[in-house]
Design goal:
By secondary structure, the protein is mainly α. 74% of the residues lie in helices and 1% in strands. It has one domain: Up-down Bundle (Growth Hormone, Chain: A), CATH 1.20.1250.20. Helix 1 packs parallel to helix 7, helix 2 packs parallel to helix 7 and helix 5 runs antiparallel to helix 10. The longest helix is centred in the N-terminal third of the chain and has 27 residues.
Length: 432
């Protein structure tokens, strides 16, 4: 392998019938809003189900585990599915699968069976895997490659605005009076305790019924939308020559390193967003206050995305944005471990700022020059989202074994590898 100083461009989309650029971006923006809303509900579901189903830290973080492991299991099948359906029909199908996952929450809530909740989360993650396998490369190639991070930053704002809203909305319903309920549960007998927890579990039913209706309506809208199909199978003459000796996606080292960087990035992002409420409670902060912490984390990410839209590529490149973001992650991670109380929680929230430009930068860097391998490369990157299943579980195990604060040290080596990818890893190409 050799390292190169430049990356070959991702192929621009070709369509059977050219459309205006605005409607596709608007439609994909709505889909990214849905990604964010459904994904960041987990930050409330973790403390909510921990109480309703009487779980320890490790068990409660199976919420993130079941949701994100579906990306690993379903990413390659999603890529194969998209070759058959095309991107637009695949997106509509992904929304339908998400609606099925939301439907499973109804029997889960009425029976208070934790495995059913996890099944519903896995199915929802499966639908999102299909959606993301289609939507991310779509927005990546919907314009010049050097401004791909800017376009993905715009999508990121849609995603994170939804993510900031979701915990507040669901938390207002499911965690209302939770602090008082925790105290009362200590004095209840078994029958009273079961009744109180059943009532708590049932609170989630109506929000998920509304979600089912919205997802079904969106699936119909996307299916009937004017989204143009994109063709990643045909390459430019330059890419055709460069990839003439390529027979497998595994011949692109920069992609494989990008998948590992994606795995670690999603892991630390999910930790920052999904553990912060429970971590705040462990620092002596009430649930009534802590339920807003995920929204602060997501708001920090929105600030970072806005900076990306303004500055990339006008003032700095997506590679430089990734380098700086990774170093910020290291600094904030160490400060979170070595401070206490609200200050420590604040540094976890500031990781949202550090994480904000990683997703927009990783996609174009990892997909650069793949040509006809773009769809399978996208599937591998989606598999990397499984980091959101593994790292929070590792955090939960360390939190149970040691404490919730020192467990955050696992973030530091993750950020250091992302920094390595931004500096060196994305330049590594196979020999022609």
């Amino acid at each position: 392998m050799t390292t190169e100083t430049t990356t070959a461009p991702v192929p621009v989309i070709t369509t059977a019938k050219e459309k205006s650029g605005v409607p596709p971006i608007l439609i994909i923006g709505v889909l990214f809003f849905i990604f964010g809303f459904v994904t960041w509900l987990n930050s409330v579901l973790i403390p909510y189900l921990k109480m309703a189903c009487e779980l320890n830290n490790l068990e409660s973080y199976l919420v993130a585990g079941a949701f994100y492991i579906s990306y690993f299991v379903m990413a390659i099948p999603s890529g194969a599915l998209l070759k058959y359906t095309g991107f637009k029909k695949g997106m509509a199908l992904g929304l339908l699968v998400m609606a099925v996952g939301a439907l499973v929450f109804i029997p889960a809530a009425t029976t208070r069976i934790y495995l059913l909740f996890l099944l519903g989360l896995f199915i929802q993650g499966t639908g999102l895997a299909i959606l993301q396998t289609a939507a991310n490369p779509y927005i990546t190639v919907l314009g010049p490659p050097e401004s791909a991070a800017r376009r993905i930053s715009i999508m990121g704002i849609c995603n994170k605005v939804a993510g900031a809203i979701a915990p507040v909305v669901l938390g207002a319903v499911t965690l209302k009076g939770a602090d008082e309920l925790k105290v009362r549960l200590l004095t209840m007998d078994d029958v009273q305790r079961a009744a109180a927890l059943n009532e708590l579990s049932a609170r989630v039913i109506m929000p998920y019924i509304i979600m089912i209706v919205v997802l079904l309506a969106l699936a119909l809208w996307v299916f009937r939308s004017p989204l143009p199909e994109i063709d990643t199978e045909h390459e430019s003459e330059e890419l055709l020559l460069a990839n003439s000796n390529k027979h497998s996606v595994f011949q692109f080292p920069h992609l494989l390193l990008g998948v590992l960087a994606m795995f670690l990035y999603v892991g630390v992002e999910v930790m920052a967003g999904d553990t912060i409420i429970s971590y705040g409670v462990s620092q002596g902060i009430s649930l009534a206050t802590a339920r807003f912490f995920s929204t602060i984390t997501l708001s920090c990410m929105i600030v970072g995305y806005l900076a990306g839209i303004i500055c990339i590529p006008r003032f700095f490149s997506q590679e430089k944005a990734l380098r700086v973001s990774a170093l910020l992650g290291v600094v904030f991670g160490l400060l979170a471990v070595f401070t206490h109380g609200m200050a420590s929680v604040l540094f976890i929230a500031l990781m949202g700022l550090a994480n904000s430009l990683m997703w927009p930068a990783l996609w174009p860097l990892a997909l650069a020059g793949l040509g006809r391998f773009t769809k399978i490369g996208s599937s591998l990157l989606i598999m990397g989202i499984a980091g959101g299943a593994v790292l929070p579980l590792l955090y939960g195990a360390l939190a149970d074994a040691y404490n919730t604060q020192h467990a955050y040290l696992i973030m530091v080596p993750a950020y250091l590898f992302i920094w390595y990818y931004a500096v060196i890893g994305h330049k590594i190409k196979s020999k022609s």
